[in-house]
Every structure is written in C-alpha cells, then in structure tokens.
C-alpha cells in the first residue's frame, strides 16, 4: 500500500468539505500523479488544502482509500472516506515542529494534483493522523487489516528486521514482546502484533496512540492458521542471540507448522531436561472442588499443552459466558495446584504421555495433576475411538444415500446426520448410546454388530440455520434410535421435540 496526498485550494477545499459531510464515497478528478508512480486500488490517500482565502493555511481534511480508478484525459478516483476532520485541527505548518515531517511540505503543490509520499513520510503522516484521532475497536480494520498469507507475514518479518536497524525506539521495545514467531528457512524472527497486521512498520508501532485498539490476541488468532506454539530451550537461546538484546524472561515461541520436522531435527541435539517452574499452591479450593475431575483435567491439558488463556478456559471448558469472566475460575483451579503464569504452554507440542512422564520424574509433587491428566487422556482416547466408529457409520450412510435414486429423482432419507464427526462422537460420549426417547440400545438388540451405534439428532434442525454456528454436543445434539429420529422428522414443516415424542410414547404405551 502506498500513501498519497491530494492537494486542493480554496474555494474548492470548502466545496469538498461540504461534499464529504454528505457522502461516504466520492468521485474526484485530478490532473496528474507524481514520481512516475501510479495509484492503485487499496492505496491510502489524505486530502489537504488551503483552509481560507489567504491560501497560506493548509489543513488536512480527510483520510480515504482508493476503491476504483478510471483513467482518460483526466483521471477519476472513486474513494471511500474513512475518517474526516471538519474542525481542521491538523495544520500542515504543524509539521515544521516535527523534523521527520518537514520534507512533506512542498512549496509548489498544484491544485488537484496527487503526490506520492516516500515510504517513511507516508508512515509518519499516518502516525500523525492516527495519533490525533481515536477510533473504536470495530473500526481498527480500516487502519490495520490482518494478514492473508505466509507471504504477507514474511514481508512483515523482513520489514521488522530492517526497521530494527533504523529505529532505536523499536529496539527498546524488544523486551516487551511476549509472542515471537520464527520461520526457519528464511531465518526470520518477529513479534505477533508487528507481523499480524498488513502495512505495519516501526514508525507506527512505537507510537502507542497511533496503534491504539490493535490487539495482540487478534493477530495471534490470525497467525494460528499457519503457526503452532513450540517450546525448545535451544531455540529460545538462539532467538536471544539473534537479537543480542535482552528479551522478556518467559517469552513464547511459535513456528510454522509446515517446518516442525525441520526445526525438531535442527534443534533436537540441544534439547535438555525439563526445568519445571516451582509449584506455588494456594489454599483456595472452592473452584477446585466445584468442577468434575474430567473438567479439571481438560483445564490442565489446554493450559499446559495448548497454551490457552484463563479467559479461554473459563469460556470454552467451564462454560462461563463471554463477558462474565476474567478467567478467575480456571486460574484458581490451576493456582490451587501451584501452577502459576509460568506454566502456560510449558509443554507446547508434547504428547500427553510425555507430559505425564516428565511430571512423574520431577522432584516436586504433581500426583493430583497426573491423575487428572490420566482421566483426560482416557477421555481423549475414548473420543478417538468413537470418532473412528462414527466415521465408518457416516461412510456407510453416504453409500446408502448415493444409491437412493429412482428414475431422475433422488430421494433423501429424512434423517439428517451431524456433519462434524467429532461433534457426533462427543455427543455419544456425553449422552451414551441409548435412545433418549424410547431407551432402545442397538447393542442389546443386535449384539456386537450394533455396538456404539446410535443416530444423532440436531435439537435445532440444520436446515433452519442461515449460517454456520458453533455446536455444543452436550446441548445441541441428542442420541436417538432410527425409529424415533424418523418420527421426529416425519412432518417436513413441523419437527417434534424430543420431549413431545416422549409424551406420545407414554400416551400410546398406556
């Protein structure tokens, strides 16, 4: 993305102000571009001009993005107006006070001409504007959009390395970064918020007002499409040596998932015995006693191995609604066991059996945590077994549907199966394989051939959903035998609830 300025003069400036007050998008003709460069869709364009008849007081009026370009004798831009300043707070002569903005000023700005700024000057102008005008979190994508590809990330990493050589303030920030990302083949290392946003650079990054509302959690979530957490003492030391500057004590490393094997091979000979942080248990046991061993095992597993935050654990494992938690419940479960902040992600990418072995060999007492992890492992193994069984069942169902033709008409069975094999398996694990309407059990009726088989019913039919939704297997899915499932869906426009079907069964039984 390039940064341009559009110069206008009084009274055109005044007319343009009135136009922007009424429109979010405008068409604007201009004479020419400078520096033999061409405007492109997506470029950022600042509009400035003479504020009064003296033509000596230039102000910045608006920030916009180019959304289309029509070129003929006069070029015409279609611009989306992102932010405006109708109070004209930023005067161009204010740039005199900022040495790095001084050479933005041109004494021969022609009316309705587009001027390309150098990369640094464009960044300084963006920083100057961004720092003056606060935006909401919802609007942050108009300034910083998330990266789309590994190529975007590599370009940002390259930019980070270059900016470190030019920007002293960025060097000072090195010890503040928590999440680092490493690409082995290019030997790139950079922090999440710098590389997760397009068009980020050191000039912008060191001004906290300019990047307000950017969120490291958003970039971490975006980068997780390609990177996975990785813990290796040798790689940590390598990254510290790479910068030659102090870094945060307990920083986290993320590596390209596609490079895991290469990195393991490169650093495996340096892997040392695990030095586990000192356990610091507290006496508060209310949350620890409140939740089942299965739930507590999941909390430990996700925090230590998958590096999940306390807030995430509260929402996704303990089932506390978003907005009603700060992560305290899961934190207190872990704190009761003595696992403070330095335990998060300590076993990144390790198998649960390996984690249990490491804890057993430690001089510290991990006996409770080990038992809870064993329960979690048993449940995980059970889910994997069920997933395999369900996959086979789904394959059989798909084959059955493929041959349900008569002439040119395809007749689909009215039963509809949960599309996610894992959700279906989790529903069976939670509710078991007895029909929740009539109690029928396929294994009891058909022996080994019917073992672990049951159909799964969506409480809210998939056909009624306008978009993809997150399914909670415990609440949204119900095991039913084929007969009951067919009866619930017998009438196309009026599916029964499971409770209604149970009442029908009771009435007819009596």
How confident overall, as mean pLDDT? 79
Number of DSSP helical runs: 20
**What percent of the residues sit in helical stretches (DSSP H or I)?**
25-40%
Can you list the strand order of the major beta sheet? 2-5-4-3-1-6
Strand content: 5-15%
Low-confidence segments, given as residue ranges, are 104-111, 399-418
**Distance N terminus to C terminus?**
75 Å
Backbone CA Rg: 30 Å
Class per helix and strand makeup? alpha+beta
- Backbone shape: globular
Describe the largest sheet: 6 strands, mixed
The number of strands is 14
Defining traits:
alpha+beta, 6-stranded mixed beta sheet
Describe the structure.
This protein is of the alpha+beta class. 39% of the residues lie in helices and 15% in strands. The strands form four sheets. Strands 2-5-4-3-1-6 form a six-stranded mixed sheet. Strands 8-7-10-9 form a four-stranded mixed sheet. The chain has a two-stranded antiparallel sheet with strand order 11-12. A hairpin with a 7-residue loop joins strand 3 and strand 4. Helix 12 (310-316) crosses helix 13, helix 14 (352-361) packs antiparallel against helix 15 (367-402) and helix 15 crosses helix 16. The longest helix has 36 residues, at 367-402. The protein is globular. Residues 104-111 and 399-418 have low confidence and may be disordered.
Helix and strand arrangement:
Elements: E1 3-8, H1 12-22, E2 25-30, E3 44-50, E4 58-70, E5 75-84, E6 113-116, H2 119-132, H3 150-166, H4 168-172, E7 179-183, E8 188-191, H5 192-196, H6 202-205, H7 216-223, E9 227-229, H8 233-243, E10 252-256, H9 260-267, H10 286-290, H11 293-304, H12 310-316, H13 328-336, H14 352-361, H15 367-402, E11 405-406, E12 409-410, H16 421-431, H17 442-446, E13 455-458, H18 473-476, E14 477-480, H19 482-488, H20 498-509
Parallel strand pairs: 1-3, 7-10
Antiparallel strand pairs: 1-6, 2-5, 3-4, 4-5, 7-8, 9-10, 11-12, 13-14
């Amino acid at each position: 993305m390039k940064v341009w300025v559009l110069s206008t003069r009084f009274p055109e400036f005044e007319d343009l102000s009135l136009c922007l007050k009424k429109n979010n998008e405008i068409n604007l003709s201009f004479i020419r571009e400078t520096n033999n460069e061409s405007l492109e869709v997506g470029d950022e364009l600042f509009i400035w001009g003479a504020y009064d008849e003296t033509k000596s007081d230039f102000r910045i009026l608006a920030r916009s993005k180019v959304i289309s370009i029509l070129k003929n004798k006069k070029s015409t831009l279609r611009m989306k107006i992102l932010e405006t300043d109708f109070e004209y707070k930023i005067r161009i002569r204010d740039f005199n006070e900022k040495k790095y903005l001084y050479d933005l000023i041109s004494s021969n700005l022609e009316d309705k001409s587009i001027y390309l700024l150098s990369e640094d000057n464009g960044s300084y102008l963006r920083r100057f504007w961004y720092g003056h005008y606060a935006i909401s979190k919802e609007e942050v994508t108009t300034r910083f959009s998330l990266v789309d590809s590994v190529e975007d990330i590599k370009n940002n990493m390259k930019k980070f390395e270059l900016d470190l050589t030019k920007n002293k303030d960025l060097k000072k920030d090195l010890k503040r970064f928590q999440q680092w990302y490493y690409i082995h083949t290019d030997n790139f290392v950079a922090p999440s918020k710098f590389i997760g946003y397009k068009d980020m650079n050191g000039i912008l990054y060191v001004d906290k007002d300019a990047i307000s509302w950017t969120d490291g959690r958003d970039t971490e979530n975006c980068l997780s499409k390609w990177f996975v957490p990785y813990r290796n003492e040798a790689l940590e030391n390598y990254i510290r040596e790479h910068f030659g500057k102090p870094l945060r004590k307990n920083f986290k490393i993320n590596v390209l998932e596609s490079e895991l094997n290469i990195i393991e091979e490169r650093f495996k000979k340096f892997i040392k015995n695990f030095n586990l942080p000192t356990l610091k248990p507290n006496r508060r046991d209310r949350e620890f006693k409140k939740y089942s061993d299965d739930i507590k095992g999941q909390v430990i597993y996700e925090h230590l191995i998958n590096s999940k935050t306390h807030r995430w654990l509260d929402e996704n494992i303990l089932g506390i609604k978003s907005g009603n938690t700060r992560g305290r419940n899961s934190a207190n479960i872990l704190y009761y066991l003595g696992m403070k902040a330095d335990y998060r992600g300590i076993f990144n990418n390790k198998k649960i059996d390996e984690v249990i072995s490491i804890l057993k060999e430690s001089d510290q007492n991990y006996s409770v945590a080990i038992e809870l992890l064993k329960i979690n492992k048993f449940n995980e193994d059970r889910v994997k077994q069920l997933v395999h069984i369900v996959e086979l069942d789904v394959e059989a169902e798909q084959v059955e549907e493929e041959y349900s033709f008569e002439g040119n008409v395809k007749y689909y069975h009215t039963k509809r199966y949960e599309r996610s094999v894992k959700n279906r398996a989790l529903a069976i694990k939670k509710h078991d394989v007895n029909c929740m309407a009539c109690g029928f059990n396929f294994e009891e009726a058909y022996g080994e051939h019917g073992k672990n088989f049951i159909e799964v019913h969506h409480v809210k039919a998939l056909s009624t959903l306008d978009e993809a939704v997150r399914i909670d297997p415990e609440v949204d899915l119900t095991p039913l035998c084929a007969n009951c499932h067919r009866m619930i869906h017998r009438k196309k426009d009026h599916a029964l609830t499971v409770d209604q079907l149970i009442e029908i069964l009771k009435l007819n039984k009596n």
